# Entry
Amino acid sequence: MQYELPLIEGRLIKRYKRFLADIRLADGSEITVHCPNTGSMKRCAEPDSRVWLSDSANPKRKYQFTWEWVEVDQKYKACVNTARPNRLVEEALLARSIPQFPGDYQVVREPKVEDGRLDFRLDFAPAEGQTPTYIEVKSVTLLEQDNGLGCFPDAVTARGLKHLQRLLVLHQEGHRAVLLFCVPHEGIQRVRAADHIDPAYAKALSEVVKQGVEVLAYSVKFDHAGMTLLNEIPVDI
# Structure
């Protein structure tokens, strides 16, 4: 995933009203930007953190700039724009670069399920002899301590719990069901459920895995122009 324009650096003043953040630019000016993240952003929204913004190049947009990355602990880049992990996974699926998903398939975005939508469905060619694969993507950016262990979620998530339950039903109906943790945080080398934050989610994750739902986690590589899904990392369940 490459940004159309170079990212702009600044310093975080504060995040507020969930979707807004005030940023101080290198020239000392201050702007308000869009923050596309509904989570708590725990440890990813510390005042004076180094941040990177994308420019919509549309001066008519209410907030021309979007908060993309933050520097955590003054050394790790993390992507706080929660729309980006889906794009990274989609690009990897289209490039056939995730080895756990081999075969001839079409990628369907936001397929309808009984009680809403999931992120992706892979529809295989008849010769493959496979039922559809459903994939739900979650972004992991919470590094509680500098120990490489990322936690999900960073706040109680009724929506995430619903997705686990839907994946289990799909598996029971004979489909392949996969939860994919996308980890756009340079300091995270493995992932676990945040039972200290949302014990109900952690318990449900363990239960659905025992019943056949698959869980994967992939790290992300950052460069000056964008990000790429990199390699699989362990999941502790």
